[in-house]
Amino acid sequence: MRFLVYSEEPEVSFQLLGRVKTLAELTGGETVAFTTLDPAPYFSYGADKVVKVDGVGDYNVESYRSALVKAVSVVKPDVVLLGATRRGKALAPRVAAALGVGSMAECTSVDVVDGEVVVERLTYGGSTVAKETCSSRPMVITVPPRTYEKLEPVERTGEVVNLRVEAPEPRVKVVERRPKPRSNVDLESASIIVSAGRGFKSKDDLRLLEELAQVLGAQIGCTRPISADLGWMDQWVGISGKKVKPSLYIACGISGTIQHAAGIRDSQIIVSINSDESAGIHGLSDYSIVGDLYKVVPALTKALRDRA
Amino acid sequence: MRQIVLLKDIPDLSEIKVDSETRAPKLEGVKRRISDVDKRALEAAIRIKESVGGEVLALSMGDEKTKTSMLEALAMGADAAYVVDEPQFRGLDTNATSRVLEAAVKKIGRYDLVLAGEMTLDSLSSSVGPRLAELLNLPQLTYVKELKVESGKVRVVRDMEDVDEVAEAELPALVAVVREVNEPRIPSLMNIMKAKKKPQTIWTAPDLSLNPDKVKAMSYVKVLGVKAPKVERKQIKVEADTVEEAAAKLAQYLVGEGILK
Fold first, then answer.
1. pLDDT for B13-61, tens place per residue?
2. A305 and chain B in contact, CB less than 8 A
3. How far apart are the CA of A155 and the nearest CA of chain B, in angstroms?
4. How far is CA A190 from the centre of its chain?
5. Annotation: CATH topology of B2-217
6. ipTM value
7. Which of the listed CATH numbers 3.40.50.620, 1.25.40.10, 3.40.220.10, 3.20.20.80 matches domain A2-164?
8. Residues with Cβ < 8 Å from A136, sequence gap 6 or more?
9. What is the rounded distance in angstroms from the CA atom of residue A204 to the CA atom of residue B128?
10. Against a cut of 0.90, is the pTM above it?
11. What part of A 159-198 touches B (C-beta under 8 Å)?
């Protein structure tokens, strides 16, 4: 099977190459990377061939769609694998529609079973996992960042295919890019996370969580309403936010919607603190305390501090 | 200003239970509602209409129940609803679905803006909007959290991972909104009554000059199975007479797990 891989984030391309290298070896195929950058690292991370694209200009969905469609006609891949970043998720369906082929989005696993590509992806708000396959060639698949790990780089090289594209003037004009305040919190790689939900009545009360986080050496997360609606923090945990996999996740005042549950599923141990005995989060937890977080969180902080 | 809003009615996620034997979701009898983000796309369209005038048309693909779901859109302020209800179009993939919607949009005819939600919560694929933009040859603005229309252009703020991107495009264009774009209105009782009198048009394959077999042949993705992942949590309730004791007990458990040293 031949795989064509692209993400505007080189790290994500490397991760995807790591996966398709295994699948290409399994099926006696080939891995091809698509890039506008220096081809060398793509070979090191698993590309057999690199399509080096010129003339597309700054990233915009229409030029990159044209360049990818052209690359597909040259490379003739069985699978076009793109990174499911927000840019990638806007690009992939456009490429698939231009090619008139099937697509499977945000796949959490990509495999080849009996010569068929089989993927898994979340459905129904993240409460279920669907197994899907696709009969068109090529097919377009997107995979979220960090789903697969990149390989150890090796010194190797291969064929570079130069592709020149005459990109039309983009119809969407970017007027301004406002960098978001850079968060110094890295939830995705945190080993302990304490997280706030609607049970917190005001932003000031988050200091209870900060004290707990300090004792544990934890990062602080929250649910979507706390971040997106109230703006108390700049990133949230959940299917539409950060998917986390800490060794310990302590959910404080979090009800446990399926969207949030899907974001914490890979945690090793989940603890819930919620005064509502019927809150869904308790059923998703290893340990739960039914109680008022305003009392339980300080008590837990104290208990942990006293131990130390 | 003529706007078309893509709406999908999906099972109410909070009502879905999982079969304990097969771990398959039980969808029968679960009420359907317009997907939350889609409703916000509709709200955005209604607000644009309130500021610059024109009409808002709701477009959906579904079955006989979808007509009921569309009443909510009409009550919120859509002027008319179009529903593609063709028994042979059930369970189509995003490729075939967007071809059907393309035909429906072309049948509606003139439009300035097509709006959609960033994704529907059932399929989580974020695909139909951009696919439709490609088929209709429209510029697309995805992940939009603010938008306004003025002098033949749509100007938006896109919520990207690292930046907020201010962008604009000439109309016609396709805009896909995120949840943060607005808070959808709750229709008044009077508007709910009025909605029943607003026009709803039902289309089948022949109405759209589509050959069902050809459409089905373009549906490439097959779902092999849907299952809830196993929840293997200990589900231990930590109880004690006082909060302090419960907290100390929890700390002990965490030490036992090897997480705390």
1. 877 788 878 888 888 888 999 999 999 999 999 999 999 999 999 999 9
2. no
3. 32
4. 15
5. Rossmann fold (3.40.50)
6. 0.91
7. 3.40.50.620
8. A101, A102, B95, B220
9. 42
10. no
11. 171-180, 192
